[in-house]
Amino acid sequence: MSTTENSQQRPLEGLRVLDLTRALAGPYATLLLAGLGAEVIKLEDPVGGDLARDNSPYVGRDGVVVERRHADDISISHLTRARGKHGISLNLKHPEAKTVFADLVKGCDIVVENFTSGTADRLGVGYDAAKAANPRVIYCSLSGFGANGSEGGKAMDVIIQALSGAMYTSGAPGEPPVRMGVPMADMLAPVFAVIGILAALEQRHRTGVGQHIDVSMLGALTSFVAIENWSAMAAAGMPSRTGLTVQRLSPFGVFECADGYIALVAVHDKLAAGLFRAMGQVELLQHPQFATRDARVANATELEARINGWSRQLPVVDVVAALEAQGVPVAPVRHPEDALVDPRVMARNETMPIAHPSYSSDIDLRTAGIPILFSGARTGFDPVLPVAIGEHNSDVYARLTGYSAEQLESLKRQGVI
Amino acid sequence: MSTTENSQQRPLEGLRVLDLTRALAGPYATLLLAGLGAEVIKLEDPVGGDLARDNSPYVGRDGVVVERRHADDISISHLTRARGKHGISLNLKHPEAKTVFADLVKGCDIVVENFTSGTADRLGVGYDAAKAANPRVIYCSLSGFGANGSEGGKAMDVIIQALSGAMYTSGAPGEPPVRMGVPMADMLAPVFAVIGILAALEQRHRTGVGQHIDVSMLGALTSFVAIENWSAMAAAGMPSRTGLTVQRLSPFGVFECADGYIALVAVHDKLAAGLFRAMGQVELLQHPQFATRDARVANATELEARINGWSRQLPVVDVVAALEAQGVPVAPVRHPEDALVDPRVMARNETMPIAHPSYSSDIDLRTAGIPILFSGARTGFDPVLPVAIGEHNSDVYARLTGYSAEQLESLKRQGVI
């Protein structure tokens, strides 16, 4: 596990999270809390555990592999999402589990779950049960459509992307929608969940009591889509999807080079002049089709063709250099593997390496960090990982519930933990 | 302004934010704080104010228009992003501004700025100045590449999208990258900024002092991209971009209908059987190319062609109904205008209406709400908007700084406010 060198405290130190989540959305919420310094206790079913343990690819003694070969191969998903979390097991379907859950909640500030809506209550581990055990607890539910809503279909990322309108904001008119490669629905809901949890903590300082936080994947992503006023744009005759460029701001967008693509923005006269100089076509500055901002917008298709006609002849690095020399905002369109190792991003721990606890890897297993820097605190993950299900049962149960070794042994024999 | 009917307190009530931000990223951060109950004081330059005031389209006495026609037309961007905020003016370039800024900061818990990196310090309104005035203040800087980094080019959303790798996670191999229509870089950094601010508030309860929070647009979006382990996937021979479908999970992704598109997920045997029944092609269950999960993945292109061959004949509504009847996860790919009025989303205030303070509109001006529900608190925006620059100068300056009417008049004459 990587942590920063900084020896300062982390912002959420002293807070404890009981983490009932699985897959991606929930575990990412508790990952953020762990990286901010909360103690996160990941609770898994004794049989099978988190589904993400079976996500390909794996890493282990043979390096990175598509199919699990050895018992100690670990899914890279698990290695990423369970970092810095302590692992315990509890079979929530067992009749004894409710009591154990209540005993755990007494020692926790926060509970997070992302079961299908209604499941936590049915299992007896919903907010009401948690509150009865600990009125100060902040209990966060992540679901597809809201904690009290009837499920309108399975809440997988691609389903939520489709419903949210996000797929139709990308791509060109007349072209198919675009499935975003980053699982935005899965990732965005947990970020709002963390905001809800921290806001409720602030309120708890005033009131002394906790509450239930309810975040939906559909709502989180749709609220992002809604920052543009689509109905007003349609009423004003402005197209809602425009592909790689935005012609009403022309020249603006993504252009082709000999070996890749670049993004550029040259909306204003001064920037357009810089672009034309970079292109070696200063005569365009006087050209009636391109001399003014209005003219460039009116002749955007022709202008874009001329830019592409120039940039296609050159490698990305030359186009970027030529535009930078003229002060025109420009960037290469980078592949994720290149983006993740940007020195600025690595220096700030916005991406960070992970490693199998026992085996090194030739591949740079780089993943998401905490993209927030604090002047008076550090972020980062404790060097702990639930490699096996229930890895930290003895320690955690003893600390939180006071159960004796005999009691734990008995719970294990009964299949409770 | 719309608020919820709930009369409970909001989670961040009692906290005050001095908001120096402009454009989108910063104002969205303070919008979230306002919707969670903080008092937000939007500070604008007396001349011109926030750039977003000049964003087309506008709304006013003629309804929604592309170009401003009347003095009281308001940009819908401003109406959206300045909701629930009090407006004051201050010319930060005036020599007297530093004193006024310090007097304001004394009465605030939080300061947020998104100037180009280094500008706030140069103006004398950076963290050091704020801390000298109020050691408890939490000061958040939003920038393209980090508060202490040299600017690596202009940090516009499309530039950050290009650098982050996000553009290359969407689209099909061999096809161009995809510019996301939702300004993800502009929107994601402020969400992490709010997490940073709230985490620092929690720490302040322990330590009594504030700190500087530093969030970069590049880091926030790159950390999202980094949740997938791109290098490991490449090493395992798994393609990084796969277009509308994901063949290693086939059938999974977006398919074409006669009048639009749907997303479906039928990874497992049971779901695949449901799909084949919905298609009226139960014989595929026995077909050697499609009978098992491995076979379906191996023959994904052929399978996708068959699904599209069926779905293209039917309207979206029929394909969705047929798949739902078989329990197969499916959703229509909706346009943003349809997505924003989903009854579930409207009921939860995840999208909410806005209106010009004086004129009604035939167009549903629906925008982002706060996608978090609290059982013990409400969210929503106070019915306040800085229509004019410095709209709330008298009230806010009197409350926060105690300046007399004469002092304010003098500051105005000198061009300070």
From TrEMBL, chains A, B:
<dbReference type="InterPro" id="IPR003673">
    <property type="entry name" value="CoA-Trfase_fam_III"/>
</dbReference>
<keyword id="KW-0808">Transferase</keyword>
<dbReference type="InterPro" id="IPR023606">
    <property type="entry name" value="CoA-Trfase_III_dom_1_sf"/>
</dbReference>
<dbReference type="InterPro" id="IPR050483">
    <property type="entry name" value="CoA-transferase_III_domain"/>
</dbReference>
<dbReference type="InterPro" id="IPR044855">
    <property type="entry name" value="CoA-Trfase_III_dom3_sf"/>
</dbReference>
<dbReference type="Pfam" id="PF02515">
    <property type="entry name" value="CoA_transf_3"/>
</dbReference>
<dbReference type="GO" id="GO:0008410">
    <property type="term" value="F:CoA-transferase activity"/>
</dbReference>
<protein>
    <submittedName>
        <fullName>Carnitine dehydratase</fullName>
    </submittedName>
</protein>
